[in-house]
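Quick start: read one record
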Amino acid sequence: MKRRDFLRRSVVLGATAFAGARLVPALLADQTAADTPAKTSVPTGTTPPDIAVVSGSDTFAATLRAVELAGGIGRFVKPGAKVGLLINAPSWWRKPGSFTSPDVTLAVLQLCLDAGAGEITYAIDPASDYWSRTPLGAKYPKLTATARKNPGEWTEVEIPRGVALKKAKVNRTALDCDVLINLPIAKHHAGTGFTGCLKNFMGACHRETNQFFHNGSGAKGDYEDVSFLSQCIADVNLVRRPDLNVCDASEFLLTNGPAGPGELKRASKAIAGTNPVSVDAYACTLLGLTAEKVAMIGMAAAHGIGEPVLTKLAVREAAL
């Protein structure tokens, strides 16, 4: 039984109708070349790598190519699928290098439409000015209007294998969607040292659960007990593994994360893969770290969520 099916059966179902209209094929039919970027092809006859990395100054194009190298969007999104997008771009991240580039999100939206997604919903709503942070936002207005706002419905789930976290209140969109696409940014974090795919799942958790991450051990400060915080992050990633992770490593904070302002690095990379542990193991190296130095990566690997040793992984790199 798939994890999402198990979760659907294990929670108490209430009124789950989402606000807003469903996406329909007419949306695509109505878009013109001026409204929609060109589609990307899907490779055939090759085994997808564990991690696909594409370098290039065009973040939108690099993202399209990274997903293509990871097996193509059709590997993940089938016609009519309900897609949940977990983006690290809430209203409180505004400084450069602190939020997922909207160009990354636009590229993923385009790919989901190309694949015939039935509906796309945010697992956490991006900031109200998110699309104005890129020139592409004004260029493709129908694309920016594609995803629906989050309905704000939550479910408490048990985590039997959790070490520090035994239950969590999680957004229903992240649980109920057919395909969960994780869109973090790789950046410095004052507590855990690094934040990427694994930590981004906190964005799907209710603030009460996230508060427990920081203070559930009795710690008074948010980063007083980093080991407990790291273990909670590893534990909550047992709830559901994203189907696809697309990590923004175009420009990010090297210091004073997660909010900034801080020293910036422009790596001009888009990273795609199915496993959050493996993608984080690669992405943290861009900050001069190794997986062994990021506790939550090792803790998640101990749960069997993924492989953190890069020499054991197939990494395919390309440049635009």
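The chain has one domain: 47-319.
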